[in-house]
Amino acid sequence: MDLGLKGKSVIVMAASKGLGKATALQFAQEGAHVIISSRHESDLKAAVSEIQEFTSNNHVSYKTCDVTNPADIKELVQFAIESNGKIDVLVNNAGGPPAGGFEHFDDEAWQNAFELNLLSYIRAIREVLPYMKQQRSGHIINFTSSSIKQTLDNLILSNTFRAGVVGLAKSLSQELAQDNILINTLGPGRIATERVEHLDTVRAEQLGVTYDEVKSSTEKSIPIGRYGNPEEFAKQAVFLCSAANTYVTGQTLLVDGGLVKAL
């Protein structure tokens, strides 16, 4: 299937590693002009080099961006316009907030999580919308968590603000449809990333067991019987932001191997 992404201008936030990097690679494989961002330039350089080598797509570049800094987001979007003349796809992504329960966090922690996992998405969308509206087309995908369907233990910050992203996307899907701008939300389950490894390590320490025991126990709860890999997740993001999707908007999709049992 031709996904119609050749030459499309794509921004992938927080893409020097993990799900963001895997998604950028999939877009690059389809011939898109991809700009990746994160806070650390050395990681970005390495990621761009790896993606270019793997895909033979030289239209992959980077711009450093702290997603909690509104000036950085503005500069990133302007860089995309200067580089590609348009923005066809925005992939919103950010690292997860710290693990912990309600009593673990003060106002500063709540504010930091809000700015990282909700306000950064709002700001990025605000910056790209004028260009998407002008061309009367665009795709926005928001990466969240399986907690958008079923809350996760010891992750109250993530549970709270990821749900806010769903409300944001659903509302915007109504407002932006007239301009042919589609927005959807994608939630990973247990995908084999550094973030999931960290959470499993924290869980193991809390339970007084090994990391392998925690992972094995979790895999038994997944109908497919294993953790997903980043490529499997990324392919869903690329499809939802491609020419193959012209009618799906305001929806949430979990990529979780059947883990979440909620409807």
TrEMBL record:
Entry keyword set: Oxidoreductase
A GO molecular function held by the record: oxidoreductase activity
InterPro entries: NAD(P)-bd_dom_sf, SDR, SDR_fam
Pfam family of the protein (one): adh_short_C2
GO BP annotation list: bile acid metabolic process
Signal peptide: none
Family, as annotated: Belongs to the short-chain dehydrogenases/reductases (SDR) family.
PANTHER family for this protein: 3-OXOACYL-(ACYL-CARRIER-PROTEIN) REDUCTASE, NADPH-DEPENDENT REDUCTASE BACG
Designated name of the protein: SDR family oxidoreductase
